[in-house]
Amino acid sequence: xxxxxxxxxxxxFFPVYSLRRREAIAGYIFVAPGILGFLIWVxxxxxxxxxxxFTDWPIIGQAKWVGLDNYVRLFTVDPFFYRSLxxxxxxxxGSVFLRIxxxxxxxxxxxxxxxxxxxxxxxxxxxxxxxxxxxxxIWMWLYNPDFGLFNAMxxxxxxxxxxxxxxxxxxxxxxxxxxxxxASSTILIFLAGLQGVPRQLLEAVEIDGGNWWNKLTAVTLPxxxxxxxxxxxxxxxxxxxxxxxxxxxxxxxPNNASLFFVLLxxxxxxxxxxxxxxxxxxxxxxxLIALVTFLVFKTSRSWVFxxxxxx
Amino acid sequence: xxxEQTPKRALSRRKFLQLSSTAAGLALLSAxxxxxxxxxxxxxxxxxxxxxxxxxxxxxxxxASTWNTLQAFMEQNPNITVEQMYIPEAGDPYLQKxxxxxxxxxxxxxALFPDEHTLSWALRDMFLDLSDIYSGEHEKVDAIQYRTPDxxxxxxxxxxxxxxxxxxxxxxxxEGIPYPPASAEEAWSWExxxxxxxxxxxxxxxxxxxxPAFDPTSMDRFGxxxxxxxxxxxxxxxxxxxxxxxxxxxxxxLDKPESIExxxxxxxxxxxxxxxxxxxxxxxxGTDTGLLSRKIAMxxxxxxxxxxxxxxxxxxxLNFGIGxxxxxxxKVTTAIGGPIIAFSSTAYPHEAMQLVSFIMDxxxxxxxxxxxxxxxxxxxxxxxxxxxxxxxDNENHPPEYKTAVVDYSLDYVSKPLPNFRLPNWPGMWQILxxxxxxVWLGEKTAEEVIAEVMPQASTYFDTEIAPLMI
Lengths: 311, 470
Prior knowledge:
A: mainly alpha; two-stranded antiparallel ribbon; 13 helices; B: 470 residues; alpha+beta; 6-stranded mixed sheet; 40% helix
């Protein structure tokens, strides 16, 4: 078989462009799935929800333009809005700060040269591969006030039992505890960060006669601030969107103490058929997360340290 | 053998990728096409072939049983093909699917529908009026009819399901305690049943709730359990002469002393008498697990658990029994069940109603009836000895079933629950439930909580329910 000429313009289906142009076209084609995906599946729905948030749309039937009514209703008469906001903020701030302290400590422990290091690391990582629905079912049993393991342990230590997820005061701390247990991805990021702390600086502290505390505060912590910052931002973004745990275990109760924001959105949209109101809630949540993220970024300049950057 | 470096390779890698992505794209696009119910060429000469869609929830067994029923319908009506839309999850996920289909104009023709949303949808004219097909011998049980304020009958529960007492017979035998009565005439009073529950409530040291050494913080077994949801709560409110709504549905009866007292009596089971698990929102222990593990001696639950308990009996040897509910002032139970409806958007109203009427005939859903999951929705099944025998004379229905369930339901099912009459009822429960949870937790008394919640409940009733009731 005779080979065709390498570049036969008459056989070409597309016109010939310059290399630069061809590369540009190829580039756009390659990024197109991502951009289109964003436009169609994220940006489009966002615009739609913004518009819907100004309507009264029961899903069955036509949407009716009501201006700012949904927002006014939420901020003035809605019986669940502020409760839900409070519960979500309580959870978010509680879980993010505890999560950072706890996972940082665990990451430092897992960074020690000990026998069975791999085993420990695996054990701490395992919870994150358990689906939240499955772990929620297990934790429901652990938290059972009458037959649960936790109350049996408290009793064994001579302490009074708790209502855990069935008490208005204890439900959010209980969900935070459960969230800590599953925080292994944060541990992983810290662990990666700890391995990048410059060894020569740690050695320098040792030579100068510093102890572990000096090493931690003068070298490790400053170098870890970018990771703490990153985990804090991600932590807030996901904590404000908590849903599954209360959906499965408490359904927002008792007495709406765990009626998280996303659960309220879900209930208004799909339980009460108030899609307009739910869209307004979703936008409030979006702005809230944006605000918190902005504040974290804003303060970061004063406490996040990048190695090699001038102070 | 040496593999040939083939110059005649049909596809370059680039070409392959191009083709396969094109194919994938086309496949995606084709999936976007709406499932149209187009009439196709007829299987029966001279008749138009009609496609109907019927959606329902349930477990795998229910899926198979429903398919059998649909097949029987198609055999009787060769010009109609019914497509089964099976959505495994009941409740909110199912409703979401209905919402999505309503928004995209792809609703099926007939469906099993979430009970508490039925009236709200009906008032938006989403369902056909079924009054005509449920007359004569197909007259349905009164308490399970979904009626709009203007009197349209938009659906009837596929099954009547009433509240009963379920218990572990072996446990009662060992303790030498008489079984919960299986007929309403002998029903225990609240006090009697509380006394029995105390005898059956035992801590880890073996002391029962009547013993002075009883330690309620380390429990081994509870004498009683009920789910604290709308149905049991309303049942005992009515048993005490109270209710959430007035008899004409035009106002609230929640703050009547009888209603408040009943709520307090239920809460006291947990917080004063310690005979019931202290659970609130998140689900309680299933009746099957509770009875089998002997953590629960008596459980109040719907007739629908019969099917599950029968399976546990066959697989694990659970020896269970059925009793009627204890009563406070009046002997009362309540009935519930998701309705089977026909959507008004159907292109074939006549055939859709035919389908609904077929599924609603207990004779056409034998698996459900004899298996124990459903009580028939039709009046004559409770009176006609022949039909009654089909229903209960089998191994899935224990001997006491006739008096404890059939007769009990005939005489003691009170008026319909709110989901059969009131639009926007779920929103009311969303207000009441958190308030009641404070009573269940023992944080406040029923009196305090009802006084606190009444203004909000009244406002909701006046703005979201009452205007739709005229």
